[in-house]
Protein 1
Amino acid sequence: MAHNGEPLVDIARVQLTYEGGTLAVERLDMQVEQGEFVALVGPSGCGKSSLMKLVSGLVAPSSGQVRVAGRIVAGPLKIVGMAFQNPTLLPWRTTRDNLLLPLEIVQPYRSRFRSERRAYRADADALLASVGLAGFEDRFPWQLSGGMQQRASLCRALIHKPSLLLLDEPFGALDAFTREELWDILQDIWMERRFTTILVTHDLREAVYLADRVVVMSSRPGRVVAEHAVDLPRPRRLETTFDPHFVEVVRELREHIRIERDPIPAGTAA
């Protein structure tokens, strides 16, 4: 948890250069408050996923500083839950056992896993029920649809009650109807638990639907070039996407990204 009014996530003057010389982000500054839901959008290759790796401690910045909960990030963080476009469920484990995996690995849960296993199983089953997967606890991943697998992946990211949830294109491979259904599921869980969330997405409607604030990143090397507060009431529902303010924010975000991809104004000769 953040202390003394500090943001939970504080990225200051960060540059990241990968081996081989690829400059992924530079002059990157961003803060995320405790309990805030932030979406990251931008052109492909703008460093959104690199930012997630920096925040989670999977990579270290070449320069600058990343702080989470008031501490400099120096390695993988226990307070983080992560979900990706590919659910990455282990095929030989049941849905419930896939959820329990983080509790077998992450302290302090690991040291008391045997003694608390019954309680952990109950937590896993309750979490699965909250996303509509009651009755599928003992199914294997290959017995679940893509949408069901992604629900299970989201539950696995939340099972250890993380303070920070990182979502990297979690619904990108799903059909439109399933994706919109999962927007509501994620929103409802977030409203109940209020964990800090950073979502990477290419879907501007998804960003505006879910986030308190949408951050636009530049073309590589990535840096923050714009931010939009989304002051629409919650819970948001599909009819919200027709609200004039919703439509206008999506339009403004699309224009920011168009400029980043093609900085020459429309109608101007190169």
Note: The beta strands are 9-17, 23-32, 37-41, 63-68, 71-72, 80-84, 164-168, 196-200, 213-217, 224-229.
Protein 2
Amino acid sequence: MSAVINIGTRGSALALWQARWVQSCLEQIFPDKSVQLQVIKTKGDKILDVPLAKIGGKGLFVKEIETALLNKDIDLAVHSMKDMPSEIPDGLCLGAITKREDPRDVFISRDGSDLNVLTKTARIGTSSLRRSSQLLHAYPHLQIIPLRGNLDTRLKKLDSENMDAIVLAAAGVIRLGLKARITSYFDTSFILPAVGQGALGIEVREDDPLMQEAMHQLDDFETNVAVTAERAFLHQLEGGCQVPIAAHATVNNQILHLTGMVAGLSGQPLLRENISGHTDHAVSLGQSLAQQLLEQGAKEVLAQIIDCQQ
């Protein structure tokens, strides 16, 4: 291992916060090494004037970073797990999934009003088809306004673009010290989070056993098991980050509880089921839950969405 460890990261304030947290951990693990950040722009960072679902492809926020890792320009990569496709490129692996922050979505309104008291035609900003589908399922008359940009930019657009409210991931808001901006938290029984939401993934090369071993120290077992089940669910559905698929798993006394959802763009239909089993069977539980939804019509729902995006 060289004297310098290079961490690949996106350049947003949230991505840098996440990478610096990993940097501080590595400085304790390797006190004799210099741990540096290398900012890499991804396709998702470069194209800001088009809704994510319209850009197409998987790995919009990770592909360029993974290429740098494979080329050995960096030694590890820090990602938000919700941005990671269900398949990891050959030659790479997840060295750790860190302890999860609050996985829920949050509602941030311009005047502090909760969703229930806003007018039926309120303007709600979100970049996520998963969020908009679930919102429209319950409130079909809402106006969903496409919202791109990093977290700070989206908060500014709440005022500048005359929106009534925006929906964001709680984890990012909390990590950036903006918890006071949150109007309310969405219970997972209403808005199911994105696969992996709130967790960080540290990606390393398969041919780097020293880094893999070091990353084991940052891995959180329960988060890893939960996210593994969620990703197995996503993979079985052959879905990406930009379709209305959601999953959330929790672990209690080695029993994993997983809920999954697939919805149409308008919120109709909305298919939702849950499953439980031992943590040893995280992958098969995710696959089984996906199969339940496929048998209820999820394949046709997703096919229609893909047709709309092309």
Note: Residues 220-310 form a domain with the Double Stranded RNA Binding Domain fold (CATH 3.30.160.40).
Protein 3
Amino acid sequence: MLAISQPDEARTVVSRITEAIKAQITGGVYPPGSRLPSSRGLAADLGVSRTTVTAAYEQLAAEGYLEAR
């Protein structure tokens, strides 16, 4: 399960999710070519909307951490 940091007024939920996933990618939890959890599944696990997780995934793709297929 993804552990996101505690609320911080300067950071949005999307940015906290993005940073947590980046940490997992760079830490080897998700090696190259592996699949991340579905946006629906991760949203349910975190108690956020699917739109929030999708925005985080889109940000990660824009930064080159993910490749959508």
Note: Residues 13-62 form one domain.
